[in-house]
Each structure stands twice: as C-alpha cells, then as structure tokens.
Write a structure and sequence with these properties.
By secondary structure, the chain is an alpha/beta fold. It has helices at residues 36-40, 66-80, 97-106, 130-141, 236-243, 261-272, 297-302, 313-326, 335-347, 360-370, and strands at 2-5, 10-18, 23-25, 30-32, 49-59, 87-91, 114-117, 149-153, 156-159, 164-165, 174-175, 183-186, 189-192, 224-228, 248-253, 276-281, 306-307. The protein has two domains: 2-198 and 355-370, L-asparaginase, N-terminal domain (Rossmann fold, 3-Layer(aba) Sandwich); 217-347, 3-Layer(aba) Sandwich (Rossmann fold). The protein is built from ten helices and 17 strands. The strands form four sheets. Strands 1-5-2-6-7-8-9-12-13 form a nine-stranded mixed β-sheet, with helices on both faces. A four-stranded parallel β-sheet has the order 14-15-16-17, with helices on both faces. Helix 8 (313-326) crosses helix 9. The two termini are 30 Å apart. 51% of the residues are buried.
Amino acid sequence: MKRTNDGGARRIVVISTGGTIASRWQGTGYAADASGDDVLATAPLPEGVTVEVVDLFNVNSSRMTAAHQLALLRTVHETLADPGVDGIVITHGTDTLEETAFFLDLHHADARPVVLTGAQRPFGTGDGDGPGNLYDALQVASSVSDLGVLVVFDGRVHAARGTVKTQTLAADAFSDPSAERLGRVGFSRVDIERQPERPTPLPLPAAADKADPEVPDAVPLPRVAIVTHHSDGDPFLLNAAVGAGARGIVLVATGAGNATPEIAAAVADAVAQGVLVAVTTRVPAGPLAEIYTGGGAVDLVAAGALLTGTLRAAQARIALLATLLAEGGNGGGDPVRSTALLRRLLDGPVRAEPALATGGSRSASAVAARA
C-alpha cells in the first residue's frame, strides 16, 4: 500500500516486522498477525509525507533471531539504495527492539534516518498507543538527518545505543538509564536536544546476503551467550556456554563489574580458547570500572575480558555478534583484530554531525542550512 498526505514531499518506507503493534487476540493471548498495511491504516500521516509498506516478517519479538535481524539489515540497506527514499520506519515488538535497533545502528552509514517504534497495547484496542507512536516515528523519519538509528516511543526520541526497555507495560517503555533522551516529538515538531555518539559504522556483513528467517540454518551464525553472576555464582554456566560452542560470552557481573576469582579464571580459559568475553553489570545505570580485585573487574580485565561501559547485556551481546560477523562469522578470525574491533564497538567514541530537524531554535537553523 502507498499513502500520501499533501503532495508526498517526503518518501518514507515502513518495514513491518510484527510485535504488539501488529498483535491481535488469538483466543488465549495476543500474537502478531496484522499486516503492515493494516497497522499503517490506524495512524494519520504527517503533512507532506508519502508512505510505502514492506511486510518483511510478522513475529512476536521474543522470537527474534539473528537471521531475522540480518534479513532486516539487508532490507534496510536495499531500501536506502534508492536515492528517492528519505527515511525508514520499522515497526517492531518491544521485547527485543533494543537489540535490533543497536544491530542496525552499528551498520548504518547513511545520513537518512532509520526509526524503530512499536506499541505496548495491542492492535485495534481503543486505548492503543501504536497509532500515535507510528505517527511520531513518521514525523521523525521525515525531519532529521545524521542521527543514526533511532527509537521513537511515547513522544520521546532515543538514540539506539544505550536505549533499553525499562517498563514492562507502561507507555513510556524505553529510556537510556545512563543518559538523557535524544529529543522529543509532539504537536508536529521534532526537537533534538543532544547528539548521539557512535562508532564508525561497520560494512554489511556477508551473512546478511544469506540470512533467511524462514530457514534458520541457511547460514551458520556464531553463538553468543549471556551468563549472569549472583550470590553463590560459579563458573558452571560460563564453562557450559564455551562447551556448547559459544564464540562470545557476555558476563553480567555485579556492581561496577565484579565476580569471583573462580569466574575470572574461567574467563581466562575461555579467552585462551579464542572466545570473546565482555563484562557488563546487572545494575541498571552507570559505567563499569576497574576498582576491585578478588574476582572483580581488575581481574576480569587481566583475564582478557572487555568492559562494556554503559552498554547492558542485550546490546553488549549484539556488539559481540557484530564483531564475530565482521570477522567472518563463526569464530576463527584474528583474536587481536577481533578484540580491537569489539573494543571500538563498545566504546562508541565518534560524535555525529549536527542533526537536521524541524521545530525549535536549534532545529530551525538546521533546516535553514538544508534549504
């Protein structure tokens, strides 16, 4: 379906992937089954926007796989190969939206925006938040530039990096616990309040050309596991992950990145076998830091692990996955090069160029510069 509002000055492609925004009652619970056209039909269009819909797949996002994410990444790149496209909106389930958004952002080198949104209340409900979120996402996608991949939800604009789901059911589902929002949207204006920091984008991985979510084994993909430390924690699950073939492990530590001497020893063994290990924390906000020994971050780093800064488990896992894919897939790359690349993805030091957006004093100057 193609819809136009007032001349179609801005051409936006909506890629539909399922989630609550596309979920209807199935008799015992909700599941994604509404088409992208059905979802788009619930929302008004911002003035001066033309929308085209791509139905890529339709799944609850708890069922998201790396094959789905690679297929979506390929579709985003193919869509942006058309110079007539001004931006992309992706409708996505909220459970794993933070992972997909970060994965796309790590590979997004185009100035044109890619905006993910979804809903906390199902399709067709009287108080549904999907139509408003979709309208806002279209407004942002038709208004900004050079901000990377964004998450737009409940009137807020978030950078992909660091943004996680912080509410299970509430409408304001997403935030970055360690940073301010990127901006806000409402009343037909978009205000960008800060610039995101992003590493130099990665090229499209070769696996994207072979990924097919309908055929999970279409291309071998690296196993990346998440293991959580806790009171009485031991190396059993970490060692089990290595034994199961994990090429990357995210250790969710306590505090600023602390575990035990036994876990530090297991990390050293894993690294010696060529496994990439990243350490994050189960604490919601704040950076990791090398403060404690006795199995703390000092020892984990000495064992060969990398600290993830303010990235939490799900996005740290995506950084590991992207590193392995960039290095040829299922392990076997140069460990020094892989470690250097992972460190760069975790650090994310590159600041974006000034954004272009409508509304507000800062936005107005950007629009003038664009004219």
